Amino acid sequence: MGSRPGLGCALGACCFLAVFCSFAVLFVLPSRITNDRPIIGILVQHTDKVLQKFGQFYIAASYVKFLESAGARVVPIRLNRSDEEYDKIFKSINGILYPGGGVSLETSEFSRVARIFYNKALEANDNGDYFPVWGTCLGHQLLSYLTSGENLLTRTDTNNIALQMNFTQVAKDSRMFQGFPDYLLKEMASEPVTSHFHHWSLSVQNFTNNKKLQKFYKILTTNFHNVDFISTMEAYRYPIYGVQWHPEKNPFEWNITKSIPHSRPAVQVTFFTADFLVNEARKSNHRFLSKEEETDALIYNFTPVFIGKHYSFEQAYFFD
């Protein structure tokens, strides 16, 4: 009996599909595998005179909670360590966050160490090794300095103020904001849901006049206070992001003298932002060499101190 018309073709198609699927498993699916145990480093800063009794360096606990809320763990990155140690840390973590603060962009140890990780991140990403870099407030300003080689900040006196965001035309399709729901983007554009605590800013004019910045970053949001300044930016070719505002404060800082919005949309901004950053870190496959090394490096080895009675942060981690 002869085979039914088309049966051979159908069997051939099935065989081809089976082979194709096998290749898909080998070559396509691994690229989609994500790291579900992301660890993000936070660069520590020198404490001021008020806090030096607790330790020489600190990290505000709100940054840690910000990352933990989206499923990441945190490793504090100390200052004044060797290049070999920084290289080891870089190969062990899945991203880095430069927090806000008040140190020099040009001469501080904070800036020097930030540059080390920034350069490592550029090299890694150029070689297909995904590694995100995030800057908040001072960290955002520092990214502009590390990229341009110049301090281009302008005095804006935008300290202790909440603002709505002026989105650029490219913002909605950006990596950072494309996952935000439309209703939240509208809230961000119409209500003061982002907190600002900075005296200096990167003006739109200075950005536009600098070819290195123009080539490297696209502007996602701006604000106006004395001058137009950049409040959110992301790199074109790299997973590098800067926000002049403080997404970590809305759910976790409660000083009543500070202009920190706590509305439902404001808190949602925090969590969508954290979710984005942590998902970026999930794309990195860096690992500690052993479980013991990982455990010893985590911030869980330190206890946050309540300082809210006398300081702008509710809690902070301290290090010597």
Walk me through this protein's architecture.
It comes from Varanus komodoensis (Komodo dragon). One of its GO terms (biological process) is tetrahydrofolylpolyglutamate metabolic process. One of its GO terms (cellular component) is vacuole. By secondary structure, the chain is α/β, with parallel strands linked by helices. Helix content is 37%, strand content 23%. The protein has helices at 7-27, 29-32, 61-68, 83-90, 109-126, 138-148, 182-190, 204-208, 211-216, 249-252, 264-281, 291-297, and strands at residues 39-43, 45-46, 57-60, 73-77, 96-98, 133-136, 153-163, 166-167, 194-202, 217-225, 227-235, 240-243, 305-306, 315-319. Strands 4-1-5-6-12-11-10-8 form an eight-stranded mixed β-sheet, sandwiched between helices. It has a four-stranded antiparallel β-sheet with strand order 2-3-14-13. A two-stranded antiparallel sheet has the order 7-9. A hairpin with a 1-residue loop joins β10 and β11. α4 crosses α5. The chain is globular. The N and C termini lie far apart (86 Å). The model is unreliable at 1-32 (pLDDT under 50).
Layout of SSEs?
Blueprint: H1 7-27, H2 29-32, E1 39-43, E2 45-46, E3 57-60, H3 61-68, E4 73-77, H4 83-90, E5 96-98, H5 109-126, E6 133-136, H6 138-148, E7 153-163, E8 166-167, H7 182-190, E9 194-202, H8 204-208, H9 211-216, E10 217-225, E11 227-235, E12 240-243, H10 249-252, H11 264-281, H12 291-297, E13 305-306, E14 315-319
Parallel strand pairs: 1-4, 1-5, 5-6, 6-12
Antiparallel strand pairs: 2-3, 3-14, 7-9, 8-10, 10-11, 11-12, 13-14
Pfam family, one: Peptidase_C26
Organism: Varanus komodoensis
Enzyme class: hydrolase
